Amino acid sequence: MKFGNYTINNPESFETPEYVIFENILQHNIDTILSMVKTPSRLIPHAKTHKSREMLNFQIARGITRHKTSTLEEIQILSECNPEELILAYPLASEIKAKRYSEIINQNKNIKYSAIAGTVYHLDILSKIENLDGVYIDLDTGMHRTGIDVNESDELLKKLFTDSNLNFKGIHGYDGHLVGITDLEQKKEHVRESINIIEQFRDKISNYTSQTDYDIIVGGSWSFQYYLDDTDYKVSPGTWIYWDSNNIKQPDLNFQVAGLVLGQVIDEDKIRKTVTVDIGAKSISCDPLTPARFTIEGKPDAELISQNEEHGVIELNGENLNVGDYILGSPGHACTVPPKYPHGLKIDTEGNISGKITSDARDRK
Q1: Is 176 helix (H, G, I), strand (E, B) or coil?
Q2: What are the distances in angstroms from CA 174 to CA 64, 125, 144, 216, 336?
Q3: How does residue 107 score in pLDDT terms, banded at 50, 70 and 90?
Q4: Among candidates 362, 357, 356, 358, which has minimal Cα distance to 339?
Q5: How is residue 43 annotated by DSSP?
Q6: If DSSP codes are grouped into helix, strand and coil, which group holds residue 172?
Q7: Cα 126 to Cα 130: distance, rounded to the nearest angstrom
């Protein structure tokens, strides 16, 4: 059965809602990003999008050997793939987590394990982690969520370089405040501002150390391409591997949506010209505003107008859907979908199930 540009054979054999991942699009996305970065060593992608050993091994096989994570569960599970480096790109603020990180590190001594720090408090916590390879300073380049402001960083730098046994590995600057900006010139201007902040910070670092052989890890899925001209920078998008209906609004990137949710129309309201589907908040992106939580492939005018745990109400706006019809929902935020399923079913180029991709690190901790 065709769903826009997607084919799934025998959808009636699925118990919906079901997470499906298209193999040929995964291959397209990885080919696309490698053609952009030119050399895999410039790419340090975020594993929080896929949370999967198979997806990490898929990337390692293509030369992408350093990866960011958000949780200790991701660190622990993905260690089994033996990447070169795993970076916990989430501030650690408790001793109990530092202890667990130490245990993980000491079980896998062939991997370089790193963390980020944006405060002196973080440095104190990280100093308790045994055999940590090093620390990246988390720099606030405009998102104002985590990270140190360049103008407030002297205490942190003094602590790190004069009163700490931690190894300085570089700068980490995530610019999530660029998410949703589709105007290319506006986005480029924001990236220039981020680069200016990073370069100011590099100058300040030079007052505390003569070290210059450190990494600068920047950008996300809405901006990484605009840092590539500066060959000193590494880039760290995450969503590119699965992509989604929000990211696809970017006209300057050629990724395609690989992970979608197969659902079914379970009821209808002919007077209001709506249908109810079984794609609820428990089965797809729930953090965007309601209309942006998913779009329906092949039904561009249909719009999600309300959603509960197990249901979504679709306003048809002239599209045709009937009770029993199958739909394919493109998530508004790819990263929030894999944790909702124990696995995604792989779909091959013919539209048949070819295997499973397990969401190994679903646990939040």
Answers
A1: helix
A2: 19, 22, 10, 11, 18
A3: very high
A4: 362
A5: B
A6: strand
A7: 9
Half-sphere exposure of residue 274, counting CA atoms within 13 Å on the CB side?
13
Helical residues (DSSP H) of 135-258, grouped into ranges: 154-162, 184-205
Q: Which residue has the tokens 């944006």?
A: 118
0.90 surpassed by pTM: yes
CATH 2.40.37.20 fits 2-21+254-358, yes or no: yes
**CB 319 within 8 Å of CB 276:** no
Distance CA 109, CA 192 (A): 38
Cβ neighbours for 74, distance < 8 A, ≥ 6 positions apart:
47, 48, 51, 361
* CATH 2.40.37.20 residue window(s) in the chain: 2-21+254-358
Cis peptide, bond prior to residue 11, ω within 30 of zero: no
- pLDDT by residue (tens digit) across 110-127? 999 999 999 999 999 999
Q: How many CA atoms lie within 13 A of 318 on its CB side?
A: 2
Q: Where in the chain is the domain with CATH 3.20.20.10?
A: 44-235
Give me the architecture of the 44-235 domain, per CATH.
Answer: Alpha-Beta Barrel (3.20)
